[in-house]
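I can't quite decide. Please look over this sequence plus C-alpha cells:

:::
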Amino acid sequence: MSAENKTVLLRRLLLARSGIWLIATLLGLAATLAAVGLLMVSGWFIAASALAGLIALGSQSFNYLMPSALIRMLAIVRTAARYGELVLSHQSVFGLLKDLRVNLFGQLAAQPVRVSSDFDSARQMHRLVSDIDTLDEFPLRVVAPWFQTACLTILLAAIICIQLPKYGLQIALLLLAVLWVPLGALALGNYLAARQNELTEQRRRALLFPLRMLTRLVLWQRWTEAQQPCLTLNDELAEIELKMCNISNILSVAVQYIFVAVFVALLCAGRQALQLKQIDVPQLLALLLGAFGLQEYVLPLCSNFSAFGVSRAAQQHLNSLLTTENMIENGQAICALPRGRLKICVENLSARMPDALVGPNDLNLEIESGQPCWISGASGIGKSTLLNVLAQELLPLKGRVLLNGEDSRYYDWRG
C-alpha cells in the first residue's frame, strides 16, 4: 500500500462519490443563482412596471406576463434545487462518513499493537471519532460555499461588463476583489485552528486526569492545584477564539467597504450610461440588487477560514495516527534497533503511573552509551515511572523519548 493511500487527502474526499457530489453542487449553484436572479428580476419588474404606469399609454404596452412567469419559475427553481441539494448532500455526507470510518479503522486495525495506556487509548479514540466527524463536513462547509459564491461573483461581473461597456470591466474587477479578502485568511485559519485543536485536546486531558482522582485530591486538599492547568489552558483557548472572532469581524468590515465601493461605482457608471441611453433605471436597479444579493453569500466566507482550518487540522491528526516515517508495515517494524553507540534524549517529559498524583514533570536529559546515570529522589517521586517510560512500558503524558534522534516508540524492541 502506497504512502498516499495510507493518508487522508482532502481532494480524495471530493473524488469519493464524485457523481452525487457533482449533482448536489450543481443543484446548490442553481439555488444560489435562482435566489439572486429572483431578487434582480423582481427589482427590475417593480421598477419597470412603475415607470410604465408613469408614461402615457406605457401601461398598455408593457408586458406583465413574461416577468411574472419568470419570477415564479425562479422561485420554484430556488425551492426545488435547495431541497434536492439538501437531500443529495446529506446522503453524500453519510456515505463519506461510512467510507472514512471503514477505511481508517481498517488501516488502524492492520497495525500491530503498540504500547499504550488506557488513558492514551481513550484520547486517541476520542480524537479519531471527532476528527472523522469534522472531516466529513469539509465538502459542505468549505467547498460548496466557495464554489457557489465564486460562480455567482463571476456571472454577476460578466453581466456588469455587458450592461456597462465603458466602466464595467473596472467594476467587475473590484467586485472580484471581495473573494480575495476571505481567501487570504485561509493560511491564518490553518494556524489558528491547529492551535485551537491542540489546546482543546490539552484542556480535555488536563480536566479528565484529575477527575479520575477527584476524591483523593479533595481529601488531600489538592483539587485547586490540580485544576489550575485546565483553567490556564481554558484562558489560552478563549484568547484563540477571541482572535478568530476579531479576524472574522475585520474581514467582514473589509468586504463591506469593497461592496460600498462597488455600489458607488455602479451608481456613477450607471448615471453616465443612463445619459447615453445604454441602460435604463430598472436594469441599473437590478445590478444593484444583484450586488446586494451577492453580499449575503460573501460575508459568511469571512468566517469560513476557521472551518477550513479545522478540516486541515483534522486531516493532519488522522494522518499522524496512520503514518510516520518509521511506521510499521505488514506487521513488522521497518526501523530496527540501531547497533553501536546509543543516545537517549528525553524532551519535556511528564508521566504518571495510573492513579498517581506525582511523577516526572517537564524532564529533559541525555544519556549516551557508557555514560553512568544516577536516578535518585524521595520515595514516590517518580523514579520507577521514568524507568517505565524509558523501557516503553508506559506512555508519557507529554513530551517524547528519542533514540538516536528517532522516536523510540517506532523501534522494534523485540529485536
